[in-house]
Specification:
The structure holds two protein chains of two kinds. Chain A is α/β, with parallel strands linked by helices. Chain A is 41% helix and 22% strand. The longest helix of chain A is centred in the C-terminal third of the chain and has 19 residues, at 186-204. A five-stranded antiparallel β-sheet of chain B has the order 4-3-7-6-5. Chain B is rod-shaped, with a radius of gyration of 53 Å. In chain B, helix 1 (6-55) packs antiparallel against helix 3. The chains are: A alpha/beta, B alpha+beta.
Chain lengths: 227, 463
């Protein structure tokens, strides 16, 4: 999987590149719109990350020209501005998704995965990790063949974590995707923490290995073994 | 176009209006004077003629003058006047009068073809003569009698008067201009002083005010209006200063934490475990930082009016119930019971996202401050104009003198910044804005249980 990162800030670009490589992607960095446009039109990429605050040519312009050229590669726009007009303008120019700076890296990875997954069939209906099983159809969960009683919210939370197993899930992602909160405030963070604690009590207490891990300052991850 | 000073313009207008009034007035006086002097002259001519006719007698069958002397024909000595009597043949028979300037008299045509009545004749020497001609039959002879008086005296009087007026009018206009210049200068002087003062008032000296000399005249009112504006500007500048100070404090604290954790960590950390702790702690601070920025951006977007609140149909009961059930886990953790006592819908028109923000911030505060094992009551009151969503807690309450200030940004009751419990002190500011931007208001009081009571009041939906 090749990812083109068009980003002028060397620190951000470097971190994103390293992070993507850590996840097994091949990342290429372009620091100007011109260079990015050239690479995007001459080399094959699976996803493009585009900063629209670029010097020289505006990122949106690059995007529009790519689309005019007929390039269908998914583009994730990174922007420091988050007014509704900016988002609309981005999507209008042919972006597939946008992410507002500052963003959590886990969020960036989740969006990239979603763009790569696009158009492919949903994974197997039954979700499992080690001896934990979850069936979205019957809305039931079992660990070590023993049923676990979950509230609706806990079930949705576990479902989401399992679908992102092996990847970090940030609080923003949970607030937006599980709690459907359009904006993130302090109350929702505390609510998420309480739910995670309860879920951990039900899923992990008395079992090995631990499956729900807290990554301090970043979010949560479901994984067999230590995070 | 030339732009003149207001003072100069006023003066010009002043002078022009004086001239406009004075000119017809003077012309009118001249005309009237001319008419009345002319009438007097004509009257004298009439009298001269009557005397002359009395003097005509018939002697030896011919027309004769009663006396032979070249005498005066009447009473009024001085001005030139004379009487001539012409025979039917056109020859002059008698000339009487004093003094007669023969050159002038002989320059006049004999009055044979002339119509009867008054006439003004200009002679080649520049003299003007007023004449009156009539016919008289004496015996069988028809004679023509012409009396004449010089009009020069009258004309020179008129000229004198005209030149007097011509001299006086510009003087009057000049005087009016000077007065106008002086008066408008006096009237505009406060304006100049105001302008000087206003120029000196800048962002740094906003506490200065314009001088108000008389609160009842227009200048005074203008100055008062300006002063009010300056006062408002000063207030917003002061708020902005406080806000900037608060923001920098709020941003600096996490930044300092990130730096010191990083620096100390680099010096002292031993293993991977330590580094994970350090980086995690730094990330937490970064997260806090971005939450402050995000909240501030939300607030400023609302305040700047760039985002207009939507008028969604919102049922406050459903909203409150939803928020309460979402936050109920937080209450459970602290063994707090939430008593939800609203049994009918409360329809209001408000921005749903803002309303949700407001309710969840207030309830979150209530949960934070209520003593463990306590109780929170959510209920409502409705009047004709508004629905009030009321949240009572069993916390320490909010002192009366701080109830307004807690709604301001960054204000915290204990006065300390960055307390773990209090968050960043923006929650209630958000609540305040969410309500006022949608036509509502926030009231803070005491709950029956001794804690705080927060009332969120929305105007009832117009159906």
């Amino acid at each position: 999987m090749r990812v083109l990162v068009i980003e002028d800030d060397p620190k951000v670009a470097g971190a994103v590149k390293a992070g993507l490589q850590g996840e097994g992607y091949e990342a290429v960095v372009s620091s100007t719109g011109e260079d990015g446009f050239f690479r995007a039109t001459t080399e094959p990429f699976d996803v493009i990350l585009l900063d629209i605050g670029l010097p020289g040519r505006s990122g949106l312009e690059v995007l529009a020209r790519l689309r005019v050229r007929g390039l269908t590669v998914p583009v994730l726009v990174l922007t420091a501005r988050d007014t509704v007009e900016d988002r609309v303008r981005g999507l209008d120019s042919g972006a597939d998704d946008y992410l507002v700076k500052p963003f959590a890296f886990a969020e960036l990875l989740a969006r990239v995965r979603a763009l790569l997954r696009r158009g492919r069939p949903e994974e197997a209906l039954r979700l499992r990790l080690a001896d934990l099983e979850l069936d979205p159809l019957t809305r039931s969960a079992r660990r070590h063949e023993e049923p676990i009683q979950l509230t609706t919210r806990e079930f949705e939370l576990l479902d989401y974590l399992l679908r992102h197993q092996g990847h970090i899930v940030s609080r923003e992602m949970l607030a937006r995707d599980v709690w459907k909160e359009p904006t993130r405030g302090t109350p929702i963070d505390n609510v998420i923490d309480v739910h995670i604690t309860r879920l951990r009590r039900k899923v992990d207490q008395g079992f090995t290995p631990r499956l729900i891990h807290t990554i301090r300052g970043v979010g949560f991850m479901m994984k067999e073994g230590e995070a | 176009m030339i732009r003149l000073q207001l003072r100069t313009r006023l003066t010009i207008w002043f002078a022009a209006s004086v001239l406009l009034i004075l000119a017809p007035f003077l012309v009118g006086i001249l005309a009237l004077e001319w008419r009345s002097m002319r009438a007097a002259l004509d009257h004298h001519l009439q009298e001269d003629l009557e005397v002359a006719l009395e003097m005509l007698v018939s002697r030896d069958g011919a027309v004769a003058w009663r006396t032979d002397a070249e005498q005066d024909i009447g009473y009024d000595a001085g001005a030139q006047r004379w009487v001539e009597v012409y025979g039917p043949d056109g020859a002059v028979r008698y000339v009487r009068g004093l003094p007669v300037r023969e050159d002038i008299r002989s320059a006049l045509e004999p009055p044979l073809a002339e119509p009867m009545g008054y006439r003004t004749v200009r002679t080649p020497f520049g003299a003007t003569v007023r004449t009156l001609v009539t016919e008289r039959v004496v015996n069988t002879e028809t004679v023509r009698v012409r009396v004449a008086r010089s009009e020069d005296g009258l004309r020179s009087d008129m000229r004198l008067l005209s030149s007097l007026f011509a001299l006086a009018a510009p003087l009057a206009v000049l005087a009016a201009s000077l007065a106008g210049y002086f008066i408008s200068g006096r009237a505009l002087a406060p304006m100049g002083r105001m302008a000087d003062r206003a120029r000196a008032i800048s962002a740094e000296h906003l506490s200065e005010r314009l001088p108000v000399e008389n609160t009842h005249d227009e200048m005074g009112q203008l100055a008062s209006v300006f002063n009010d504006t300056f006062a408002r500007l000063e207030q917003s500048f002061a708020r902005l200063k406080q806000f900037t100070a608060d923001v920098s404090h709020e941003l600096r604290t996490p930044l300092t934490a990130i730096r010191s954790v990083g620096e100390v960590g680099l010096r002292e950390a031993k293993g991977v475990q330590d580094y994970q702790e350090i980086v995690g702690s730094m990330l937490e601070e970064a997260d806090r930082l971005s939450q402050v920025v995000e909240t501030l951006l939300t607030l400023s977007r609302w305040e700047s009016g760039r985002v207009q609140p939507r008028a969604d149909d919102v049922d406050l009961r459903a909203l409150a119930q939803d928020v309460a059930s979402q936050l109920s886990v937080l209450a459970e953790e602290r063994d707090i019971a939430i008593d939800f006592a609203i049994d009918h819908s409360l329809p209001v028109a408000t921005d749903a996202v803002m309303a949700r923000h407001a309710v969840s911030n207030v309830l979150d505060n209530a949960i934070k401050y209520t003593r463990e094992g306590g109780r929170i009551r959510i209920w409502s009151e409705s009047s004709r104009d508004e629905h009030r969503l009321i949240i009572d807690d069993e916390g320490p309450g909010i002192p009366e003198d701080q109830r307004q200030r807690v709604l301001e940004r960054f204000y915290r009751i204990d006065g300390s910044h960055s307390g773990r419990l209090g968050g960043v002190g923006l929650g209630l500011a958000i609540v305040q804005w969410a309500l006022t931007a949608n036509g509502g208001r926030v009231r803070i009081g005491d709950s029956d249980a001794g804690g705080a009571r927060v009332e969120l009041c929305w105007p009832t939906a117009q159906s």
